[in-house]
Amino acid sequence: MAPTILFVLMAAFFIPTNSHLQLTDQAFTSVALSQQGLDFVKNLLIDEAISSIIPLQLPKIEKSVKIPFVGNVHMVLSNTTIYKIDVSESYVKPGDTGIAIIVAGATCNLSMNWYYSYSTWLVPVEISDRGSASVQVEGMEVGLTLGLENQEGTLKLSLMECGCYVKEISVILDGGASWLYQGMVDAFEGQIGSAVEKAITKKLDEGILKLDSFLQTLPKEIPVDDNASLNITFVNDPLLSNSSIVFEINGLFTGRKRAPVPKHRLENSQSSVFCPSSSRMLGITLDEAVFNSASAFYYNASFMQWIVDKVPDQSLLNTGGWRFIVPQLYKKYPNDDMNLNMSLSSPPVMRIAKNNIDAVINLDLVIDVLEAGKVIPVACITLIIRGSGLVKIAGNNLAGSVKLNDFTMSLKWSNIGNLRLYLIQPVMWTLIQTVFLPYANSHLAKGFPLPIIHGFTLYDADIICSDSRIIVCSDVSYKNQTIL
């Protein structure tokens, strides 16, 4: 059997009766970050920013100051390095004008080398000394406002405002005269604070540019298999509320080689996110149009057909195993091997209700006899299979399984006379239960990818089926990697 048929079977669980698909720039999948999700991302970005900032070298500072009883002293601070930043409080708040990230009460530790020289009329030779010092910046506040917009299907991140404010500086000298401490503080306190503010602001600006470049490199398609991809192009600008951000993407299946997907009309499609608990970080809503597009693609690309030549009870693929079920078959082709040629006669039909998924699959089964190297079709049976489905999360994939509820059958055509279908029905039941469903479920368990950025993983996810939509509500974990 062709593996791609299994993606069609998954799509079968999400196709409404008489629905039609139109491949447009509409959004059929949405991803919502709640306040908890925003806090999680904010903490990651702060950790990334600190890692990218430290160690940070500041410019050399020189100044001549007048010290009582000493005179004019030339002072130099060099090799000034920020080696540690601690953040005690931070928050993120989306709003109409952008996304504000505020860091308050941060501390910053620096190391530096100092040097001074002076001469007086009492001592005509130059006096100098050098040593090291440690500096602690306290009460540092950092604020930035980010703009986020859709730019030709990708996210564009811009830095709208950025500022850093240093409240207090303390200096500890290693060596030096007692007068040097107060002179150092008086001379350089403002310059050290200003240098820290400028350096951190510049680094944040560079970091936002790198983060924007990272967003620009996000793929617009996620491969599903060798033939199909998910179109994850962003549609519309992100929707910002006071406690969440919603991203809308196209989300439809498309050919990997841009093969055209047949166009149909889609009615009343609206993608939305709703998770009962606001404590979940992430909500992903998949409109049934996503699964419609999978069905349309695979069905029209002729992937919904396959040949069964091996079954657990191999006697069912020999006319001898049918001698008492279809005697005329055995009489005309005694002890010949057989194939079962299966193909879907129409795209599967599916209805999603609250906590329930039902599917109807129309299948034509052609009985082929293999005789003298020839394949001879002898009869075709139409099956209407009714099943129920279950969806689950497998890693970052939406996976599923199907079980048989019941089926009906009718004879479509026959070259061997009339068939007693009530005798064939147990054989069909066995084939569906032992061949069709196990094979389908082994592939459905792999699923297809959800629109998650590489490095993030869903965990403790809940799935809600409601109003022709699948909603995934989940927390996320992050595998450490460098973004900034």
Automatic annotation (TrEMBL):
Domain Lipid-binding serum glycoprotein C-terminal: residue ranges: 276-474
Keywords (A to Z) from UniProt: Glycoprotein, Signal
Entry GO MF terms: lipopolysaccharide binding
Domain of life: Eukaryota
Gene3D superfamilies: Bactericidal permeability-increasing protein, domain 1 (3.15.10.10), Bactericidal permeability-increasing protein, domain 2 (3.15.20.10)
Signal sequence bounds: 1-19
Alphabetized InterPro entries for the sequence: Bactericidal_perm-incr_a/b_dom (IPR017943), BPI/LBP (IPR030675), BPI/LBP_pln (IPR045897), Lipid-bd_serum_glycop_C (IPR001124), Lipid-bd_serum_glycop_N (IPR017942)
GO biological process: reactive oxygen species biosynthetic process; regulation of gene expression
Gene Ontology CC, one term: extracellular space
Family matches, as CDD domains: BPI1 (cd00025), BPI2 (cd00026)
Entries under Pfam families matching the protein: LBP_BPI_CETP, LBP_BPI_CETP_C
Family label: Belongs to the BPI/LBP/Plunc superfamily. BPI/LBP (TC 1.C.40) family.
Protein name in UniProt: Lipid-binding serum glycoprotein C-terminal domain-containing protein
